[in-house]
Amino acid sequence: MKIELIGGCEKNELEKRIQKVAAAGKLSRFPGNVFEVLDSCDDYEKNLKLIKRIIGMGHKSIIEHDYLVFALCDVTPIIEQTIIGNRLTSFTIKSRREVDFRTAGFYIPEFRNKNLEPHPKNEELKEKYVAHMKYLFNTYGDFVDAGINVEDARFILPYSFHSNIIMGLDARELEKMVISFLYGPLSKISEIKELGENLFEVIKEYVPYLVKNIESSQVASDNPFEYMEKMINNPKVKIADKPNLISHTPNPDDVILKSSIMYHFQCSEKEAERILADCEKKDPEYKSKCMYTILHKEERRELEQVNFTFQIPISLSILTHLTRHRMHSLLVPEFLPMWDFNNFVLPATIKAKPELEELFLKAHKENIRVFEEFKNSDIAEQDLIYFYLGCQMLNVITTMNGRTLQWILRLRCCNKAQWQIRGIAKEIAKQVQEVSPLLGKGLGSTCVTDLICNEGKECCGLIYKLLEQKNKE
Length: 473
Prior knowledge:
single chain, alpha+beta, four-stranded antiparallel beta sheet, globular
């Protein structure tokens, strides 16, 4: 693992960053304008002292003006999924759909016992672990050599493989992240604790005003489910067959349309309902026309007034295709306790060739065997999470407003989207259309909803068929 802060590290850059944050802290009580405030913050040490005092009082919004970009080299998808959970953080990740990962390398944990102490057979265990990981990587390579594209071959990759990430976040999110990694429940995972320590070393040198707060922080590390687990027997895990709309805003189409009337005319909901009914009497197509306008506005705030909650079955390989969309409320199961390895998906391209299907199932079975062997050797669960494979299925829950839903589906319903997330997106669109038909007309790839394709030379060609069909009508 290698972590570096990209930019903002030179002395003059550091001083300008600190000046900006100090000016934000001073602005509300300083008699001059914003430029005079900036000019007055010309002493680095005084600026640092001011920032520490203000955030020590709990006023942390000022450090949101200090934006930092990190390069994360040779970290695993365990790190990926953990940091992406910080919804106000931006990421660019090396694509497993485009890049051959057989030489990417993989993480090797220092194995501990269930008391999180060094395991007496650590070196022997590491030797077995390395041999098994090489076997899985070789199987991945066999799939690629057999003509399986890397986007499907990756379903056999273990979650130990190395990834590379560029991560951008403000100092407030950075503080929250590092505290969690150093002191929270996640700190029991060695790799995450190591990332927290590396980030903290960067903070000490380049974001010094955070040091005291981080060192003095306390995080509740108790299991929030412990009381419930004592009361019930854990139910058998069942992966859903398809996305399931759990709940939604009642009458979502009318809510969107009435909200448009309410804010425009500054009237009550009751009055908006009357106006909507009158408009529909004058023009039976009014609702449809109005919704079309809202769906194509630059600002579509009316769509944010309705929500849809889904349970979605998805594989680990594809989870980032969902988590990377930050503006929805996503609940992803924690890596511990360990999930049932028998819940997995087999790509159709592999299933179509009996010899490759056999190879996949053999590798999957061997992975379970080795995992069980390690599990029975008194090894901490936190060190076993790297046995997860990309094909592992899990259920996630998310709530999206109408605007986020439209944005996600326009990307994920596209024929260029990965097959599993495309199937998920199309099923979500279908279920929303059943309860919100007017909104539903705007859900899907842009070629279907608007007869527009932005893929240029990489266009799948569907747009031309749709345009031809439109011209015949």
